[in-house]
Amino acid sequence: MTEYDLAIIGWGAAGFAAAIKGSELTSNQMKIALIGYGPLGGTCVNVGCVPSKFLIEASKNYREASHPSYAGIKASASIDFPEFMESLNNFVSTEREGKYTNVISNFENIDLYEGLAKFIDKNTVSVNGKEIKAFNFLISTGSSTFIPELRGLTNYYTSDNIWNIQKLPEKIAVLGSGEVALEMAYAFSNFGSEVHIFNRSNRILKGFDDDINSELIEALRSNGINFHLGVNFHEIKEENRKKTIVTSTETFTEFDAILVATGRISNVEGLNLKAAGISNDNGIIVDDTLKTTNPNIYAAGDCVRQPLKLETLAGKEGVIAVENMLGGGRTVNMNEIPWVVFTEPNVASVGYTEYELKKKNIEYAVRTVDLKNVVKANILKSVNGLAKIIADRDKKIIGVHVVGPNAAEFIIEGVYLIKNKLTYNDLIDSVHVFPTVGESIKISGQAFIRDISKMSCCMD
How many angstroms separate the CA atoms of 321 and 136, rounded? Predict the structure, then answer.
């Protein structure tokens, strides 16, 4: 048996962040076991954020080259899809090596164990028959795609294995309408695939306000994506390598591929949490400091029972968990965590939604600005979208939501506004850059004090 100060189960964003932070805080004196299964780096770098955004940006480049937005510009484009996918996977390998393999080699106090961990008791796990004991544990095993029970659902892709596809599908069905489903649908539509989104719910982006969803659906429909919402699946059939989706009301045929993106579930199966005294209910239950029901074991990232599953949140939680193991008492404020869908337009959000505030019976005021009122959006010829600010009775900003180009790049302003408890008057008093799409946040703030249709550019 080998003993450690800290054993981390899972070597994705949360696990790596925790291992590095623990090393930094103890001048590399903390003895750490980092246990993982599959490629180093976990979901984000291997099958999540990195490859998906590479795919999206390339697809935008292809679409713009094929369909220039500006008068007088004529162009055409072609794609060698296998060569492109090879370049994508090479990029992922390079990023994994640079950000994970090379980084972890700098820490001699961290031992790597490849394998699946299983708790034997409250302070011991077994990995490939080897027992590892630790004073503290961090569980950061991430999440995986939820696969619904659907008759005939075989030979499908998920966000884990779509990166092996070698032929661009002429027609693809996407099951689900969350952020992963929408991003992948958007990318393939840009490349010219006929894309159909199916979902049992009659809405997209669970928890978002109706105006956000409506704007995004309109934008994606204009991109060629077909939506089939509120449908009940019956079965999937396959003949001559073509798939048919049968719903309770209609049959859809001739699909070359099916992508399942129906949400994600926490990876906790096989850990034997009961032996460690850890409670689990659709994710590991933790307190505000990320401590589980076993006081010596913390959990962070997607394996935790929490509404958001984000790489950045996982990394933050990994750091906070280790700090709290060493005597800290830090917590995570979910209302300060930004959340983005990387379609075009982007959906970027931080803080409360109207839906949440109505459920909590919290008094609020809201102002919404259409992007047609933002000069840079008109320059970009991308006016499908809006910017919305929600304020409390004291004028403090408690929610910022944008549907617009490049919103992922400037939603951080919303984070600072909320984190620092600033009012819309503070926002208005801050000089913004013109012309930018980010200016839409200030204009939304100005809508609280005037009719913006009677306002000139750059007015304070």
Answer: 10
Residue type, 17: A
pLDDT confidence of residue 206: 87
Amino acid identity, position 459: M
Residue 343's closest CA among 388, 260, 403, 389? 403
Give me Rg for the CA atoms of the chain.
24
pLDDT at 369: 98
Degrees, nearest 5: CA angle 73-75-81? 145
The token pair that represents 307 in the structure block: 């509404």
3-class state of residue 281 by DSSP: coil
Q: How much is the average pLDDT of 170-179?
A: 97
Side chain identity, residue 56 = I
Q: Is residue 439 a contact partner of residue 391, using CB atoms and an 8 Å limit?
A: no
| Confidence at residue 1, expressed as pLDDT on a 0 to 100 scale | 82
Average pLDDT over residues 74-79: 94
0.85 exceeded by the pTM? yes
Helix axes 49-66, 179-190, angle to 10 degrees: 30
Coil/strand/helix, residue 33: strand
In a 10 Å sphere around its CB, with 0-12 CB exposed, 13-18 middle and 19+ buried, how is residue 150 labelled?
middle
